[in-house]
Amino acid sequence: MKFPSLEDIRNAHLRIQPFIHRTPILTSTAIDEMAGCRIFFKCENFQKVGAFKARGAANAVAKLTEEQKKNGVATHSSGNHAAALARAASVAGIKSYIVMPSNAPEIKKKAVKGYGGEIIECEPNLQARETTLRAVVDRTGATSIPPYDFYDVIEGQATCALEMWDEHIPFDVIMAPVGGGGLLAGTALTTKYISPSTLVIAGEPAGADDAFRSFHAKKLIPMEGPKTIADGLLTSLGKLNFAIIMQYVDDILTADDTEIIEAMRLVYERMKIVIEPSCAVPLAALLKNKERFRGKKVGIILSGGNVDLGKLPF
């Protein structure tokens, strides 16, 4: 199947307009001075449901047929996609069934319930998530909407970078975090369609570095036993996303948990905004590799702000 085109992405953006915020781009002179470059932060932590995931879920639900809507939607997710899909379903007036690992953050379970999603808990591993989801789909007839490895979702996530390019900033580099790869794949498509010379670079936790390893091995290497504070990036890279990433992403850089926490704290202190650990990964990777970015204009997608304030790592 061919990748979503720029026209597909523009259409997705029009389709989801009523259901999302157009998030602001913020800057920080203090962080620029530390980094040795100009950084433009696209604040998806201010997005509906507190994360970019609202875009992909809204697009996927908006594209359902009337027949599909009757039985609702289902997915497995440990967090932001779960809330995003529950909300998109609620807005569309349809049911949502969300399979969540038993150790998913309480704040994320609360969000799903708040949007009217029915939570089905499972053991905290991918196999249990997939098996439970299959059982739910068999029982309910709901349409499964995967968290990232699905073109309708990728197309929705790609609208974030579209808004960045609408600001007419001549970005040298655009950075996004990578977990399942939906945001990164979408960002890479939009960016390379609009400005082929702009570099697309991902940030990934060193403790969950399957995208980094897969990218360099040029073959998909699933993640086993990921261990990182960036709970939104614990998942393995999706197949559809990997194909897009191999064609359009220029590099993947890693940062360890200490560096991620430091970058997260920096954003709290200097920008006075709430971000979750996964969100701080690209900035952490940039600060670790300052020479590569010196003097450049860098767009960083701050992917989300759903963090349990009672468990801040600093």
Description:
The protein is of the alpha/beta class. The protein folds into two domains: 6-51 and 151-311, 3-Layer(aba) Sandwich (Rossmann fold), CATH 3.40.50.1100; 54-144, Rossmann fold. It has 14 helices and ten strands. The chain has helices at residues 6-16, 29-35, 53-62, 66-69, 80-92, 106-114, 126-140, 151-166, 182-194, 210-217, 239-248, 257-271, 277-288, 290-293; strands spanning 25-26, 38-43, 73-76, 96-101, 118-122, 143-144, 173-177, 199-205, 251-255, 297-302. The strands form two sheets. Strands 1-2-10-7-8-9 form a six-stranded mixed sheet, sandwiched between helices. A four-stranded parallel sheet has the order 5-4-3-6, sandwiched between helices. Strand 3, helix 5 (80-92) and strand 4 (96-101) form a beta-alpha-beta unit. Helix 3 crosses helix 8 (151-166). It is globular and about 55 Å long. The model has no long low-confidence stretch (mean pLDDT 95). This is Threonine dehydratase, catabolic. It comes from Mariniradius saccharolyticus AK6. Residues 16-304 form the Tryptophan synthase beta chain-like PALP domain. Belongs to the serine/threonine dehydratase family. Its cofactor is Ca(2+); Mg(2+); Mn(2+); pyridoxal 5'-phosphate.
Strand order of the largest sheet: 1-2-10-7-8-9
Count of runs of 4 or more consecutive helical residues? 14
| Architecture (CATH level 2) name of the largest domain | 3-Layer(aba) Sandwich
| CATH top level assignment of the largest domain | Alpha Beta
Separation, N- and C-terminal Cα atoms: 45 Å
Proportion of β residues? 15-25%
Radius of gyration: 18 Å
Low-confidence stretches: none
